[in-house]
Amino acid sequence: MFVLELSYTAPLDRVDAVLREHVAWLDAHYAAGVFIASGRKNPRDGGVILAVGDDRAVIERLTASDPFVVHGVCAYRVTEFIATKTSDALAPYCQQL
Fold first, then answer.
1. Are residues 4 and 49 in contact, defined by beta-carbon separation less than 8 angstroms?
2. Measured between alpha carbons, how far is 95 from 64 in angstroms, rounded to an integer?
3. Which of 21, 31, 66, 81 is the most buried (most CB within 10 A)?
4. Beta strands in 30-88 (DSSP E)
5. pTM greater than 0.85 (yes/no)
6. What pLDDT is attached to residue 96?
7. β-sheet bridge partners, residue 76
8. pLDDT reported for residue 87
9. Count of CB atoms situated within 10 Å of the CB of 62
10. Which residue in 78, 95, 94 sits closest to 86, CA to CA?
């Protein structure tokens, strides 16, 4: 599992100009089962996405395809972790060490 932390590198007006494309990109990866939660940070200086996958390189390529990255308005920090305890709703993503 991965925590994808977005940090805006451009003013919010430039971020907002790409927001529709970013949301469509999010929707596609939710539909594919890769993303399970996402949202803005507060204060609004970026966002967070919770993603599932086994291959960090695949996740890094995925983040590089985000319209926010393509248009140069954000940077990603990718943190991989092993979800050894989850809520019942996330039980399908629970992992063993």
1. yes
2. 26
3. 66
4. 35-40, 46-51, 74-80
5. yes
6. 85
7. 6
8. 92
9. 21
10. 94
